[in-house]
Amino acid sequence: MKRVLIGGGTGFIGTRLSNLLKDSGYNVTIISRMPGLGRITWHEVEKHGIKEPTTAIVNLCGQNVLDPTRRWTPGFKQNVWSSRINTSASLVKAITHATPEFKPDVFINVSGVSNYKPDSKKVYTEYDECKKYDYMSELCIEWEKAATIDKSHGVRNVKLRTGVVLGREGGMIKSLYLPFFFGAGGPVGDGKQPLPWIHIDDLCELIMFSIENKNVDGVLNAVSPDIITNMEFAKAFGRAMWRPALIPLPEAVVNMLFSKERAVLLTSGAKIEPKRTIETGFKYQYPKIYDACRSESKLFLF
Fold it and tell me: Measured between alpha carbons, how far is 49 from 254 in angstroms, rounded to an integer?
């Protein structure tokens, strides 16, 4: 039986990924704070390591940075940091200390694209060097460092940098659905900022593709090849819902709601190409923004 451990497997992405893997014949175990059926706890992983034969480990953990109910305090910033860095480091430690019969073939860590500095004249690929330029870029760079396994351990180390994940059950679309439904949707600010994105089904398929293909290793941009702006997303989502998308959310309001340091996730962005991802042979089910929006614009989740 092929077995996959998923850190953060009960969330928006993890739930869809778990279902895909189970439907494809995998045995899925969730690493969670709470014990339960089909779960192990982070405490167990940290104390005992990996004690069963494992095909892959996938880490999706991370406190929601844009949780509107949480103020951007030093304490919340620390939660955002530790929920990513500490879980990645714990899994790397468990993998490197595992006996050969239990060691996974691949460790996949899903992080973000904030390590690409916004630049209207540049299109980034996985081959570009990343440097720290603000809190979010530092977080992503240190996150990837914590998720790095030395090649001597013989475990493939895949680092997926994901853009905005489009799915009805969570993320941006869940937050924007009602405003758009009632005709109050529109771009953030002037809408000219790039919006790297990926459909949730493509992200989950890319994770499974990375598990099953031994040629996949290193950094992959988990974004669509369709490079768009925030305005183009708003128009596509409005069209998919048969609604206008004319009411912008002023940048000043976004900065006030979230604080400028994390509001940059909405008010700015980089043009990003999934060059290495395409080179692996991965095929997107939703390469165009309108098709992605249409598939996730349904009113009901069943």
Answer: 42
